């Protein structure tokens, strides 16, 4: 995990985070202790021999402890703290030992007998279960209280987690082999349904370890990480479970049954803690999502407004350029009035046509939706319609253009080429028809064709026109001229990728 993420986990698990639930945990401890004291006088009363209580108890412990163990190990991967690695191992051990307890408990699965081991196996399993969990939990709390900075190297985190799971599984397997294969060599812990003094003594010893872990959780570790604060509540419920069970003195007594219920509660505390954290994180995520959506909506509105203003500004710029070109055209026209030389007048006419081409390109762009691209077809039609006015009588001009989106860098050179070629053709004697075609071909290519049916050779003029040749090179095109019943000029052009 990146350092920033680990820091956020530490912040969430720091003193500020632990301070809020501390009063709640202490209040729950008080209520739980009061309930346990109220139940103690009735603990020795015999209760109903309900064998189903053990499978239900084991299923609860197995599910909650194993799930909690893996959740703690996930937290360990984020923080790399040894205390969480030990706590995760403790939870996994408690969950897996529950299965061994179910297999060795008489009547839990098979009527009147256990699946594995002799009658004493269940009592030894219970003590090993309790002792192993208490020892690992005490080690985790001690590490959190006295060595909070004790961490695993980043490169070793996953390996240590896998080793912890493997060692816990091996420890549970070893306990199973002991209670099923060597239980006859062990001192008895049960006399009928009652506990032996050895059983009680060992249980009291384990309870001392649990009590020490509770004190360390509430006094030290819980102030640094709320998970250990809630672990103190879980261990308190486990301590109550053993007190009630000892006070009951035998299986299926009221204290024994309440003890199992209390242990199930103990196993669920940390699981509920993680579920509570998940709920809070989801709520925080929902709030953050709502806030982000509000900010995105506000920013989108700002950008939309800015984009609208930009479009308005661009349209105004294009409009002013068009107006300025119209002014230039008017100035050229005014300068041409006193001129009588036919060659000069033709030069003025060609110049005005080129200015018109530039203005028409800006006008088309001003009308477009995105102010970047416009359709070439109406642009060519407008150009040819203007040139048609200067055609000799009897000459017709046709335009066939595919709809292709182009920008100014493509449209202006192409428009000037069309203007030059068509203007040359319509002024030729004997030309009755001029055709302009712009067709899109395979891939990103197009072909411009200007043809006429006259006897003259405007193609020769085109080939020698430096303006047309230069504009064609600018567009990356190639010129070809053929003659069949007239002159046909073809220019192959690559269409810009953006188009």
UniProtKB/TrEMBL annotation:
GO function term, MF aspect, one: kinase activity
Organism: Paeniroseomonas aquatica
Highest taxon listed in the record's lineage: Bacteria
Signal peptide: none
Keywords of the record: ATP-binding, Kinase, Membrane, Nucleotide-binding, Phosphoprotein, Transferase, Transmembrane, Transmembrane helix
Every Signal transduction histidine kinase subgroup 2 dimerisation and phosphoacceptor domain range: 316-390
Enzyme nomenclature, EC number: 2.7.13.3
Primary enzyme class: transferase
Domain Membrane-associated sensor intervals: 50-277
Chain segments annotated as transmembrane: 24-44, 50-72, 84-103, 123-150, 162-181, 201-220, 227-249, 261-279
Name of this chain's protein: histidine kinase
Entries under Pfam families matching the protein: HisKA_2, MASE4
Catalyzed reaction equations: ATP + protein L-histidine = ADP + protein N-phospho-L-histidine
């Amino acid at each position: 995990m990146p350092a920033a993420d680990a820091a956020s986990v530490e912040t969430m698990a720091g003193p500020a985070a632990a301070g809020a639930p501390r009063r709640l945990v202490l209040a729950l401890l008080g209520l739980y202790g009061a309930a346990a004291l109220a139940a103690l006088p009735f603990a020795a009363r015999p209760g109903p021999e309900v064998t189903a209580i053990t499978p239900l108890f084991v299923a609860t412990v197995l599910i909650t402890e194993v799930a909690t163990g893996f959740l703690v190990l996930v937290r360990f991967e984020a923080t790399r703290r040894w205390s969480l690695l030990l706590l995760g191992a403790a939870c996994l051990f408690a969950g897996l030992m529950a299965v061994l307890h179910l297999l060795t408990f008489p009547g839990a699965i098979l009527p009147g007998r256990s699946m594995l081991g002799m009658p004493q196996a269940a009592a030894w399993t219970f003590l090993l279960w309790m002792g192993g969990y208490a020892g690992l939990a005490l080690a985790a709390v001690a590490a959190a209280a006295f060595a909070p900075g004790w961490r695993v190297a980043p490169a070793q985190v996953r390996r240590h987690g896998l080793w912890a799971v493997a060692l816990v599984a091996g420890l549970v397997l070893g306990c199973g082999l002991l209670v099923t294969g060597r239980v006859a060599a062990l001192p008895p812990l049960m006399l009928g349904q009652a506990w032996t003094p050895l059983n009680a003594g060992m249980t009291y010893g384990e309870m001392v370890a649990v009590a020490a872990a509770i004190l360390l959780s509430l006094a030290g570790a819980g102030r640094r990480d709320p998970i250990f604060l809630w672990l103190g509540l879980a261990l308190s419920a486990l301590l109550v479970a053993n007190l009630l069970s000892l006070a009951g003195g035998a299986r299926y007594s009221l204290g024994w049954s309440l003890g199992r219920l209390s242990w199930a509660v103990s196993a669920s505390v940390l699981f509920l803690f993680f579920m509570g954290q998940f709920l809070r994180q989801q709520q925080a995520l929902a709030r953050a999502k709502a806030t982000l959506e509000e900010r995105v909506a506000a920013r989108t509105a700002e950008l939309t407004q800015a984009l609208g203003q930009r479009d308005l500004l661009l349209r105004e710029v294009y409009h002013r350029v068009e107006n300025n070109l119209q002014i230039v055209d008017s100035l050229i026209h005014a300068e041409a009035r006193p001129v009588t030389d036919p060659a000069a007048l033709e030069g003025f006419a060609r110049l005005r046509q080129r200015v018109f081409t530039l203005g028409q390109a800006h006008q088309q762009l001003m009308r477009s939706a995105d102010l970047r691209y416009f359709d070439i077809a109406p642009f060519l039609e407008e150009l040819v319609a203007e040139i048609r006015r200067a055609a000799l009588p009897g000459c017709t001009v046709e335009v066939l253009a595919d709809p292709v989106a182009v920008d100014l860098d493509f449209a202006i050179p192409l428009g000037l080429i069309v203007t030059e070629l068509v203007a040359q053709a319509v002024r030729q004697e004997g030309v009755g028809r001029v055709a302009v075609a712009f067709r899109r071909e395979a891939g990103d290519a197009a072909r411009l064709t200007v043809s006429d049916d006259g006897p003259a050779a405007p193609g020769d003029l085109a080939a020698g026109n430096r303006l047309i040749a230069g504009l064609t090179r600018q567009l990356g095109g190639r010129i070809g001229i053929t003659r069949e019943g007239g002159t046909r000029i073809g220019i192959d052009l690559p269409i810009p990728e953006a188009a």
